[in-house]
Amino acid sequence: MPYNSVNTNVGAMVALQNLNATNSDLAMAQNRINTGKKVANAKDNGAVWAIAQNQRAASGSLNAVRDSLQRSQSTVDVAIAGGETVSDLLLQMKEKALASSDSSLDAASRNALNEDFMALRDQIQKAVGNASFNGVNMLNGALPSGAVTISALADESGISRLTVLAQDMSLDTPGSAVGLLATDSIGTQAGATAMIATVGAAIANVSTALSKLGTGSKSLANHLTFINKLQDAVDAGVGNLVDADLAKESARLTSLQTKQQLGVQALSIANQMPQTIMSLFRS
């Protein structure tokens, strides 16, 4: 049963408790509006904050995966450009060899064809040597390190990899798709006749190598698209966990501000209660 006392103002105590609770809720709403987050730190919600941090780490790791895929794709694309140049040069070399195999050809014409052939042959090595990206060459088996196989990151763990095999197209290298020597020529009819088959085999081998590089580049591009979508989904998931609904928080802020004003008024009324008791003793 309520009672009147100058020592204990129960009404003021209740009003103050309610006002403090309102002020606390109001501070929380203002913080959410300021940060845009309903879980800005571990104090807000430890479990949700920990989950969000783990997903942020995963998203950050996917940045490294994306960079690796883009770098690898560029390396493979440069190798493809070099390989296509080699293929075009081989087509011209076969034409020169076929022309030089003609028995009716005079010596001067055959020498001219041979000069063209050797110039094309030398261009192959130049094209292969220049097909580098970021210091990585997938075609030049003549390097001390040999032609380099690409192994791109495929996930944030670093365990899974996407591999694109090197395709050696250099001269004078055993196992090269080109299969030509830096001294090959078509200076004689017999040599030109033999070279037709050699260059024909090189064209077929280079075409196969380019097909493998093209497939590898497409695989890298497809996985890069997937990684971009995955990262977007992870980021959206983090947002769902920690982001505040600002429209809702704005409405809540208005409500709490009104409640705060009423709480202050209620506390003021409760604090006037002892003065009401004094009127009981007036004559």
Description:
The protein has helices at residues 10-35, 46-100, 107-130, 189-242, 246-271, 273-278; strands at 132-133, 136-137, 150-153, 161-164. With 283 residues, the chain is mainly alpha-helical. The strands form two sheets. The protein has a two-stranded antiparallel sheet with strand order 1-2. Strands 3-4 form a two-stranded antiparallel ribbon. Strand 1 (132-133) and strand 2 form a beta hairpin. Helix 2 (46-100) packs antiparallel against helix 3 (107-130) and helix 2 packs antiparallel against helix 4 (189-242). The two termini are 27 Å apart.
Topology, element by element:
Blueprint: H1 10-35, H2 46-100, H3 107-130, E1 132-133, E2 136-137, E3 150-153, E4 161-164, H4 189-242, H5 246-271, H6 273-278
Antiparallel strand pairs: 1-2, 3-4
Structural class: mainly alpha
Biggest beta sheet attributes:
2 strands, antiparallel
* Content of β-strand: under 5%
* Helical content band: 55-70%
Which key phrases capture this entry?
67% helix; 283 residues; mainly alpha; two-stranded antiparallel sheet
Entry summary:
The protein is mainly α.
